[in-house]
Structure formats: C-alpha cells, structure tokens
C-alpha cells in the first residue's frame, strides 16, 4: 500500500490553475523527484504536502491518515529549502535541535539526537559554529540534519542543491541519497535539473504546466518518454520530420534513405525523436546509415558534439573523446549510423 498518497490535487490562485489533477502514490522509503521547468507547480505540490497551502480540491494522506487540511505543525514532515534557511543566531547544534526543542523534548534526548544527526552528516566537530562560518554545502547538510532530527514521516526537499557550486552539488547528491537510504525515509525532491532527478531517484515525476506528464523510473523516463514534452525536456533530443511511405509497417523516408520502424504509423508525415548519443559515425553494426554533412564540431571535453545537415534537417550526435580518433572536419560528408529501434515517434 502506498505510504504517501496525493489524489487529484488541484490548486488555483485567482484564475490561475497552477496544479491540475495531480495524483501520486509514493511507497515507504521511496525517493521521488518532481522534475519540471520553473513555474510548472513543483513547489506548490510540495507546499500542499507540507501544509503551507491548502489544496483547492483533492486529498493527501500519510500512512493511511488524511492530512489534507492539517496545519504544518500537525503533520510530521521535514523540509529543506533552496536558500539556506538556518537560524543565523543559533549554532549548528542549536539549529539541528530546534524542532525537538519546540516539541519540548528533554535536554538529554535533544543532545543525543543532535550528536547522532551531526555524525550522520559528517559535521560532528562543527556543532558550536554559526551558520555564517560554514560553506554553502555544509549549511545545506545542517538544514538536512535539522529537518531529519524530529524523525519525520516524510522528507521534502525543494531544490536544495541549486545554490551550490557544481562540484559540491554532485557530491551532496550522493550524500543525500546515501542518508535517505540509510534512514529509509520517504522523500520528495524537487528540481529543475534533469541530471539530479535521473541520478538520485527511484522514480521521477515529470511536470509540465501543473500536470504530471509521466511518472516512471529514470531509465523509463529517458528511454520511453510518454509525451513530446518529456522527450524534449529530459535529455537532448533531435527532432526529424519523416515522410511515411507505408503506414502499416512503419516505413519512412528520412535523409535520402528509407527506414523500417516496425511500428504502425499514421499516413502522411511523422516527427521522430533521436538522442544524440544513439547516433554513430559510420554504420558498423547498425541498421541504417544516413548521409550528412558536418556543420558544427563542439569539443566539450569527454564528449564531442557534432552537428550534421541531412538535406535541410539538422542532426546532433555525440562522439566520445578518444586519442585514437580525430573528429570529422567542417564540411566533411559522413555516414551517420543508427538503429531504427532508437527512433521515437513523438508526433504526427
Ligand atoms: P515551480 O516550483 O515549479 O517553479 P511554483 O509552484 O512555485 O512553480 O509556481 C507555479 C505557479 O504558481 C507560478 O506561475 C507561480 O507564479 C504561481 N504561484 C505560486 N504561489 C503563488 C501564490 N501564493 N499566489 C499566486 N500565485 C502563485
Ligand atoms: Mg519552485
């Protein structure tokens, strides 16, 4: 049975329907990301779960108990925000113990729990510091410890890594996930960063204009996007227009050649999606070779992103950097190999 249940949540501000028929079942111990562009309603969903916003309609329950209209302090939820929301005038230890103090727990219990939490985040030595004496990454770890100290039923994280440097962000991703697994705490993580969502989550909810477009494991979201929006928002996607030659078998004309998709298609034209990393230089071992002319060579380090012109349509492809290979030159004519199965049909 689902541990955290959101059913048909709606939130309207004035005439603005910000969250639309949003339903989600989260298992105990699961790590779920809400992924979507700025303004799509992620924070509003989180605030409804926390009790800072009352849904216009719909229901929320945690561990079988309905909490839809309970105040935040009547729910057992921990929350971490993007900006370091630590109390500046309290020490690290006092920040971490804050929730327990509000609950009126005995001093000895608070001290023991604070020590346990500081050990968990690897900051046992810094309990007496003040927030301004910590790095951004350390402050977010303290915010996490503060949220977890009262043993919440659900942990909510609203873009907690967005304000940090790239390197710190990546290491904190792993650290947050390790702590979440160790405690087995049911977690909803909000982000607009697809790499964060894909790398951290058991399941990802891709949101778009207040709607959950797709809910699935990272692999599924990336490889089998359910909508055109998901296909283009998560990862990079080439879109190619093809002419349908045989609708029943899915034979299409693309870039001067014919490809058999083995899928029924509508008559006329279709829009196909293709990830840059699914395309190779040369046709070795692949179903299909398209002919293209290189128009762009972008050296990104580990990867070299090439662009090729296929008779009027542009196709991006990635090659791994290697000492054995020289990238093609601008204007060079190349064969671009791909598998028919990697072509997504994303529109008619
Ligand atoms: P996200 O977190 O995905 O960036 P939000 O949930 O913060 O999106 O906001 C979704 C939409 O709801 C935005 O258009 C935002 O302006 C609007 N919104 C959020 N909170 C309020 C509010 N308290 N009053 C009016 N509009 C709001
Ligand atoms: Mg937000």
Task: Kindly describe this structure.
The protein has 348 residues and is an alpha+beta fold. The protein has eight helices and 20 strands. It has two domains: 4-233, P-loop containing nucleotide triphosphate hydrolases (Rossmann fold), CATH 3.40.50.300; 238-346, RNA polymerase II/Efflux pump adaptor protein, barrel-sandwich hybrid domain (OB fold (Dihydrolipoamide Acetyltransferase, E2P), Beta Barrel), CATH 2.40.50. 24% of the residues lie in helices and 36% in strands. The strands form four sheets. A six-stranded mixed sheet has the order 6-7-8-3-9-10, sandwiched between helices. Strands 13-12-11-14-20 form a five-stranded antiparallel sheet. A five-stranded antiparallel sheet has the order 15-19-16-17-18, with no helix packed on it. The model has no long low-confidence stretch (mean pLDDT 95). The structure holds adenosine-5'-diphosphate and magnesium ion.
Blueprint of the fold:
Layout lengths: L3 E10 L2 E11 L4 E5 L6 H9 L6 E6 L2 E2 L10 E4 L11 H11 L4 H14 L15 H13 L5 E5 L7 H18 L2 E6 L2 H7 L2 E6 L2 E6 L1 H6 L4 H6 L4 E9 L4 E4 L2 E4 L8 E6 L5 E2 L6 E12 L3 E8 L2 E8 L12 E6 L5 E4 L1
The structure holds adenosine-5'-diphosphate (ADP) and magnesium ion.
Adenosine-5'-diphosphate binds next to strand 2 and helix 1.
């Amino acid at each position: 049975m689902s541990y955290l249940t959101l059913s048909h949540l709606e939130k309207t501000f004035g005439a603005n329907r910000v969250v639309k028929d949003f339903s989600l079942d989260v298992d105990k111990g699961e790590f779920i990301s809400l992924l979507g562009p700025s303004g799509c309603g992620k924070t509003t969903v989180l605030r409804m779960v926390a009790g800072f916003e009352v849904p216009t309609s719909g229901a929320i329950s945690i561990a079988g108990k309905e909490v839809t209209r309970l105040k935040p302090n009547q729910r057992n939820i921990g929350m971490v925000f993007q900006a370091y929301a630590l109390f500046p005038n309290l020490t690290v230890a006092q920040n971490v113990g804050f929730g327990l103090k509000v609950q009126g727990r005995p001093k000895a219990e608070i001290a023991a729990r604070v020590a346990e939490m500081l050990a968990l985040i690897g900051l046992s030595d810094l309990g007496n510091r003040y927030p301004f004496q910590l790095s951004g990454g350390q402050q977010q770890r303290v915010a996490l410890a503060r949220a977890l100290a009262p043993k919440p039923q659900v942990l909510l994280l609203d873009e907690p890594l967005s304000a940090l440097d790239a390197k710190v962000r990546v290491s904190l991703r792993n650290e947050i996930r390790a702590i979440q697994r160790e405690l087995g705490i049911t977690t909803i993580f909000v982000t607009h960063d697809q790499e964060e969502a894909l790398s951290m989550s058991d399941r990802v909810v891709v949101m778009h204009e207040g709607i959950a477009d797709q809910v699935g494991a990272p692999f599924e979201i990336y490889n089998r996007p359910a909508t055109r929006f998901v296909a283009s928002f998560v990862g990079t996607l080439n879109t190619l227009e093809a002419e349908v030659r045989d609708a029943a078998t899915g034979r299409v004309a693309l870039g001067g050649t014919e490809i058999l998709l083995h899928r029924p298609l509508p008559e006329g034209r279709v829009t196909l999606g293709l990830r840059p990393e699914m395309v190779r230089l040369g046709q070795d071992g692949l179903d299909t070779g398209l002919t293209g002319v290189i128009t762009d060579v972008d050296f990104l380090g580990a990867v070299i992103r090439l662009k090729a012109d296929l008779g009027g349509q542009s196709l991006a492809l990635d090659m791994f950097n290697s000492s054995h290979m020289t990238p093609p030159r601008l204007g060079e004519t190349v064969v671009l190999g791909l598998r028919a199965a990697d072509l997504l049909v994303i529109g008619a």
